[in-house]
């Protein structure tokens, strides 16, 4: 059973999400929070698998709440998915850097929301390739000269190659085709790279690829 915490200051939004999620045989809503502070408290108390976190909330916003959750080693298994009104929300970039595993627009189709919840808990990529590429473009536009490629010494040559392909927004299937390997092999390489770099998820791996200098702005085609 996948346990989800809903964090949004709008009661109607939470009610709509609850009705959809609770109707699924493999998903249950573990709790609801109306602001970021309450969300952090409930995550520590209930230990849900994932949090659907609104970016704009009173008292403590979703970004600060996400940082509080993702920086707590005891909550390492909790995945945060940011909720936003627009796909190109100005805060989406900071949300990913704050440790969010991805984001969803609030008017996402029901089937897509369910797929996303299941995907992020399974550790798969939540961001679609198109959304990932927009995120990368934003990162590239804002990034300064990257630091030397430190922290990558534990990676094999193939794992660095795979990380660079993740960094330019390729899915596991696209990586498999590029390297002429099976999708399962590509996924295994991505997973091992995340473990070695202690990346929470694929979104963080994209950021690390840029911050380490493994991928440079301008590589996005």
From TrEMBL:
Residues 148-213 form the HTH luxR-type domain. CDD domains: LuxR_C_like, REC_NarL-like. Residues 3-121 form the Response regulatory domain. InterPro entries: CheY-like_superfamily (IPR011006), NreC/VraR/RcsB-like_REC (IPR058245), Sig_transdc_resp-reg_C-effctor (IPR016032), Sig_transdc_resp-reg_receiver (IPR001789), Tscrpt_reg_LuxR_C (IPR000792), WalR-like (IPR039420). Pfam families: GerE, Response_reg. The modification 4-aspartylphosphate is found at residue 54. Coiled coil: none annotated. Keywords: DNA-binding, Phosphoprotein, Transcription, Transcription regulation. This is Response regulator transcription factor. The lineage of its organism: Bacteria, Bacillati, Actinomycetota, Actinomycetes, Kitasatosporales.
